[in-house]
Each structure stands twice: as structure tokens, then as C-alpha cells.
Amino acid sequence: MSEPSIFTRIINREIPSDIVFEDDRVIAFRDIAPQAPVHLLVVPKTEQYANVVELAAGDPALLAHMVDTANNLASEHANGEFRLVFNNGATAGQTIFHVHAHVLAGGLEEGNLA
Ligand code: 5GP
Fold this sequence. Notes:
The protein is built from 3 helices and 5 strands. It is an alpha+beta fold. It is globular and about 45 Å long.
């Protein structure tokens, strides 16, 4: 068995985080190094999928639930508009291989992009 991911350790409350939402399938918390006024991570509770391509192929309903969760959180924490980022692969900036969506919002209008 490989070590649990950092995000699984957050889900299991082994690492503290600022959790803003949780249900039976996903958890959302504030990114520790925010790149926008609102920067949340939406993470499936399963770490079965390393990236969004695997998730889309294996459980598209879970991917749709992540998008829905991002939309709800953007309404709660910003004006409802948001940027959704999935880094896919190390050379694209992915550092944690437990699929997650970055929800970036607030003050990202043209000319002020992160
Ligand atoms: P990636 O680069 O894999 O797309 O995104 C990983 C994200 O996780 C980064 O934005 C990073 O700041 C965030 N992160 C890494 N470790 C922790 C942590 O322990 N707690 C929280 N809240 N975020 C983390």
C-alpha cells in the first residue's frame, strides 16, 4: 500500500485545514498558498483517481459533482463567478496526485488575472 495522500490526511483530520464544505463524496478547504482572493480546493474523498482525465473516464458523475460543488462555493464565497483549474501532470504544475479542482474567484477580472 502506498502512503495516503496529503488530501486523504486532511479528510481524516490528521492534518488541519480550513474546511468550508463536506459531504459523502467531496471535501472543500482553503488552499494553504492562495493564488486569488478566494482559492478553494474541491477534492473527492476517494484517492482512486490521480488526475481529472482518470476521473472523467472512471466516474464522470463524481466530476460533475465537483463542478456543482465549485459553483455553490463560488456563490457562497464570491459573486458566483469562478475559474476552475485542474493541473494534469507534473510539468503542468500538478504536485498532489489525488485529483482536485482549484476554485479561484474574486477580483480576477481582465487585467487582474492571477
Ligand atoms: P496542484 O499543484 O497539485 O494542482 O495543487 C496542490 C495545491 O495544494 C497547491 O495549490 C498547494 O498550495 C495546496 N496544498 C499543498 N499542501 C497543502 C496543505 O497541507 N493544506 C492545504 N490547505 N493546501 C495544500
